[in-house]
Specification:
Elements: H1 2-16, H2 24-33, E1 37-38, E2 43-44, E3 49-50, E4 56-58, E5 63-64, E6 69-70, E7 75-77, E8 82-83, E9 88-89, E10 92-94, E11 107-109, E12 112-114, E13 119-120, E14 125-126, E15 131-132, E16 137-138, E17 143-144, H3 153-157
Parallel strand pairs: 1-4, 2-5, 3-6, 4-7, 5-8, 6-9, 7-12, 8-13, 9-14, 12-15, 13-16, 14-17
Antiparallel strand pairs: 10-11
């Protein structure tokens, strides 16, 4: 009971912080208190929401943009990662297993891994099971359905 009250108060405090960049580091620190395993210089923009802070691991020098949503499930983020505004990172999905419909079926948590030195531009969506390799830039508005390791041949063709 006390643990749930503590979490509720921390989420409430995060929501009350002014919507200025000066408070991004404080928001990051409060999410660390909620269970995020983060390196140094972790910053979170205003109105961002981390659904499962205890399942999020973040490297050094990472920023989660304004209005970004990190869904329920395991997410691993490397060092020096910039996550733009309004990005959705969705590490789990619905199934119809167990109930015959997607609303009450089991959750399929495939997780997401984002490598070092990546930039996820504004309004991009990363879905369950995707691994983004180091030094990757995801263009604004892109929906990533597959790991970019599966598409490496494109880099060689267009160099």
């Amino acid at each position: 009971m006390l643990n749930n009250l503590k979490k509720t108060l921390l989420y409430f405090l995060i929501s009350l912080l002014p919507k200025f960049h000066k408070f991004d580091r404080l928001r990051g620190s409060l999410y660390i208190l909620l269970g995020v395993k983060a390196g140094k210089n972790f910053k979170v923009g205003s109105n961002a929401f981390i659904f499962s802070p205890d399942k999020l691991t973040v490297g050094d020098n990472c920023y989660v943009g304004v209005m970004t949503y990190l869904g329920t499930g395991n997410i691993g983020i490397g060092n020096n990662v910039l996550i733009g505004n309004n990005v959705n990172i969705l590490p789990s999905n619905h199934t119809d297993i167990g109930s015959g419909n997607f609303r009450f079926g089991q959750i399929d948590n495939k997780g997401i891994v984002i490598g070092n030195n990546c930039w996820l531009c504004a309004q991009s969506i990363i879905v369950a099971g995707v691994n983004i390799s180091d030094n990757t830039k995801i263009a604004a508005g892109t929906i990533v359905l597959k790991s970019n390791a599966e598409q490496k041949f494109l880099k060689n063709i267009y160099k």
